[in-house]
Each structure stands twice: as C-alpha cells, then as structure tokens.
Amino acid sequence: MKKFLILIGALALTLTLTGCGNDVEELPEIPAVVDMGNVDDYLGRPDVQYVDLRNFDDKMKSGYISGFEMIPFFDYLEATDILVRTDLDWIFAAADIHSQGGLEELFDADRTIFLMCGSGTRAGYVLDALESLGFENVINVGGIADYSGDAMVAGDGSYNIEVQLPLPTVVDMTNIDMYLGRTDVQYVDLRNFDDKMKSGYIAGFEFLPFFDYLEYSNVLVRTNGWDFVAADIVSESGLRGLFNPDKAIFLMCGSGTRAGYVKSALESLGYTNVYNVGGISNYAGEYNVLGDGVFGNVSTVTGTYTPGVHYGDNGEGYMAVVVINANGGIENVTFDAIYCTEIKIDDPANPGTLISQDPKEYSSCTTKQTLGFDYNMALYSASTLEWFEQANLLAGAIVSNQGWVTGWLITADHFDPTDAEVIADGIAGVSISINGFQGALEDALTNATPAS
Fold first, then answer.
1. Stretch 312-329: mean pLDDT, rounded?
2. Which CATH superfamily, name and number, covers 176-289?
C-alpha cells in the first residue's frame, strides 16, 4: 500500500513538472548530508518522510517546519514503550527497541526519512535505532533551533498540553528535567532559605527547610545522626500535613543526605512513592536559578519580638508560623488551614458536630497550603486566585507592615477591596474570610512577645 501511494504521488509530481514539451524535470538527488541550512531544498517530496520528534507542546509553542509530521519521542515512542532509552546520554542499544513492529509501522523504509527535533539529539538516537533494523536512507537534519528557512510556522510562545510520562524507578539530578512541572508530583527542597538565595535552586521546588523548620519546630528531630528511627517523628500530624500522600514526592537537598533521611521517615508512615532525587551540587539541567553567592538571612527589619519561629492558631483550624529575625522584626509569615474531608462527631444526637480540628483526630486531613492548586477554590468560586495564593498575599502584607494594620477596612469578615490602604498593600485580591488569619497571627505574635 505504501509503495502504491508513493507511485501515485510521484506520478502527480511528474505531471506538474511537465511543460509543453516531453521533457520531465527530475527530482534532485538527495545528498548524504541534509541539515537546517539546506533542508528547504528538499521539502515537499513524495519520496521523503519528514518526521519531527518533538512533543506536540513544542510544535504549538515554539513553531514547526511545514510538512513535517509529529511522532513525539518522549510523549509517544517512550511513553507507549516502543523505543525506551537505557542510557540517559542518548547512546542507543539494541535492547532499547521494545516493539520492532511499532517502529516499522511508524517509519517508511521505502522512503528517505528526514528526522528532526529540538537540537538533533533525539533525531540522532532514532536514526541509530532505525539503522539497526536495516533502514538505509535515514538522515538527521538537526534541530529547529538552527532553522531560518521559509517554511517556518511560528508558535504562540505559550501553548502547553500536559502529558504525564510514567515515573521510572530512579529519578535523580541527571534526568529530573524530564519530570518537572507535573501535577502528580510534590517537589520539595529541604535546604534552608539562605541556601536557596545564596547557592541557587531548581525552579518549581517548594522549600521545607529541614534544619530551620522540621527540626526547629520539633516535627522531625534526629536522635541517631542521619540514621532514621521511629522516635525521631515528634509530630506525626505535622509531618503528614506537609507532605501529600496522594502524589509522588521528590526530595532534594545539598547532597542527598537530608532527602534520604526524610524519605525514610515518610516511608515509615506508609508513604509509598517517595524519591530521593539527590543534591543540587550534581544538577546541570536547564532549570537552575542561580543564587548570588553571598546571601545570608540577615535583615535590617527591627522589632520587639523574641527571635525564633513562633506558631499560632485560632482554635478552629487556622494556623500562622511567624519567623522573627535576630533584630526582633517579623521576617516571614506563613498562613495555613486544616482541610479535612471527614469530620468527627460527638454523639448520635448531634450528627455532624465538629469536636476539633486536630489532625490527629482525622484520617483524611491535610492543609490548604499542601493542596495548593488541588484545593480548586478558583474552580468552584468567583475568585481568580487559589486559597494559598490569597493567604500568601496577606502574609506578604503582614511582613511589609510588621503586623496587622488596624486601618484595613473590613466588611463582615472580609477586606474591603475598594479601601485605598488595602489596594496599596496589594491584598485587594484577598476575597476569603480573614478572621481566622487574624486570630492565628495574634496568637503567634503573643507567643513571640517577651514575658514582662
């Protein structure tokens, strides 16, 4: 069938190239080397299969060369177990071909095959795979980054369609770029905030400092060096509230030691999908945000509070963690709230009566900060911001003003979004109830106030 279609196409092209006379213009011979500098000379031929190995996202976001069909390497060849690398340095091995029939169905051995991708790496790898099966006319024409011809179709610069590749057994700093940005993964950096700003970080990782938070707040405290023992978990509910059991959890730190320790702690609680992805010192990927090399967590903000990390709650599930710097000023505020899908009732006569918001009383509790976008508040309300985004806006305003501003006008238990000071402080977008935040903050600052 393929040969029949090729003959029909060739005949049609021959007819279009025939003038009033009987002379037929022959197709130019394809040279041994075709690249992005001369590929335009060989586009539109029926005797060539043009294949772009990038993902569909790349096509719509970064653009494409007209006439190339998409056979995505990551989102199709690997994801459907046809051709799967065993060497992450892109060195082909015969065992990488999991479905010879699948490859032979996708690629036409009766035509010359032009392979392209982003830089030429995937194209070179697939070329080796096809040649191992006896394909004779396969050419790596390179990466679209080097193309400046006339057949370019521009992308929109932003398109994204999420295709979640299956997670392998091992994710580390050599392959982590392939698994960033997923909604089914919680990305956690266990270093301190100083390390982030001084040494840099991988974009997309949230910070849950081991030393400055987990140990300091008496959640997870070592008693035997870096060998985890069950007694190290001082607050099981605190640990569970920070880590999402419904997602894969990628843990990283400076060298991998803290990540390995926390992995052991989580697995002791029944977490089954936790990865120690190693230390940032071994990362050479594309998502490194450089630090300034000198940052130290020293602030000029001053105040009268007791230095340290202080916790507060309003007794109804709202929590505030306030960091007071060495000068007594409010350095950082984090607001959170317990979120439970089940409630505890006191007796059958009062069904649904909530006894407490203590996570230890529940088997289905987490926090709204942990849920992040998965809380889906924006989906079910008129708000354009998720709960955690609004909480973080308010926290930033607290730090900027060194406390709750009495001038913030409140309608019922909400900010007045038309108030000039609310607008100036950037919290007009906070549309959720604020009494719980205020109560938790006041409790934390009370705990931070020196005894008279």
1. 89
2. Rhodanese-like domain (3.40.250.10)
